[in-house]
């Protein structure tokens, strides 16, 4: 059983859709389907229940998902420790999915200038893990958003952004100048899977328990609204695409962009990355820009 095959399996198990998993893995769907089928043949079990609408994990598949995540995390730690022992310098950065912030580009340029020989490994994660793998020890530092369980972590705020309600353009509330979460109390909201950090889940659900479709990625949030007429929260300056609008939400605290790392981490590459991140995300004086 190869690690690559396990990565394929985890992608399908988390996306519950072969097409989306193939896109996430940057490969076409047929070889992914063949790899999963071969894995099932090798193990002699069915890992997924297949239907025209997608796939669902079998009980055996759920067990393998738990074990595969742990094994892949251990493999990543082993790779990093071997590289460190060999004298190689690298830092693994977790980034919350669909990150298009221009200041991240500024940070990448600054880091490249300062540390041209440090290898930066980027691990983009979905919306189910706001720590981007810090608690699982698969990344060294994360550029992400709060709130989340900060136990064992050091978190520094880089900036805060106002949020809005994501609606269909033809929604009866789409023309409002602003909304409160209470205005959406009787609506179905997109929500994250069971087991997601409760602080994170509560914030993006407007502070209340919600009912609605489960999503794992930014694009899934938008599609849930577009196809089902559900609602949810997003950044106010988000460009949601055709058929969708963002209406300012008042009575909601802004979304905090943060850099986070593990307590006690003395890796100088991590410390330097944090300093550069704080500088890259600092407000720019328009008189100087």
Helix content range? 25-40%
Helix segment tally: 8
Shape: globular
The chain-level mean pLDDT equals 89
Description:
With 289 residues, the chain is of the alpha+beta class. 37% of the residues lie in helices and 20% in strands. It has helices at 3-15, 18-25, 29-43, 59-85, 102-114, 198-204, 218-228, 268-280; strands at 48-51, 54-57, 90-96, 119-125, 141-145, 153-161, 163-168, 232-235, 244-248, 255-262. The strands form 3 sheets. The chain has a 5-stranded mixed sheet with strand order 4-3-5-10-6, with helices on both faces. A 3-stranded antiparallel sheet has the order 8-7-9. Helix 5 crosses helix 8. The longest helix has 27 residues, at 59-85.
């Amino acid at each position: 059983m190869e690690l690559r095959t396990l990565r394929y399996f985890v992608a399908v198990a988390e996306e519950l859709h072969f097409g989306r998993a193939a896109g996430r893995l940057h490969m076409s769907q047929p070889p992914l389907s063949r790899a999963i089928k071969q894995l099932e043949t090798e193990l002699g079990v069915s890992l997924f229940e297949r239907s025209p609408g997608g796939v669902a994990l079998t009980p055996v598949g759920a067990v393998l998902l738990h074990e595969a995540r742990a094994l892949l995390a251990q493999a990543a730690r082993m790779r990093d420790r071997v590289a460190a022992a060999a004298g190689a310098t690298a830092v693994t950065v977790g980034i919350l999915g669909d990150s298009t912030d221009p200041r991240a580009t500024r940070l990448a340029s600054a880091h490249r200038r300062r540390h041209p020989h440090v290898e930066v490994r980027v691990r983009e994660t979905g919306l189910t893990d706001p720590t981007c793998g810090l608690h699982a020890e698969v990344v060294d530092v994360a550029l992400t958003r709060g709130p989340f369980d900060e136990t064992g972590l050091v978190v520094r705020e880089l900036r805060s952004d106002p949020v809005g309600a994501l609606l269909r353009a033809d929604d009866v509330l789409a023309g409002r100048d602003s909304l409160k979460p209470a205005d959406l109390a009787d609506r179905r909201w997109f929500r994250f899977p069971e087991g997601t950090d409760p602080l994170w889940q509560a914030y993006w659900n407007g502070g209340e328990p919600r009912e609605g479709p489960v999503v794992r990625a930014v694009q899934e949030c938008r599609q849930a609204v577009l196809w089902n007429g559900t609602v949810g929260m997003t950044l106010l300056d988000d460009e949601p695409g055709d058929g969708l609008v963002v209406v300012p939400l008042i009575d909601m605290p802004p979304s905090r962009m943060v850099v986070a790392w593990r307590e006690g981490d003395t890796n100088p590459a991590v410390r330097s990355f944090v300093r550069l991140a704080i500088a890259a995300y600092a407000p720019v004086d328009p008189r100087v820009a």
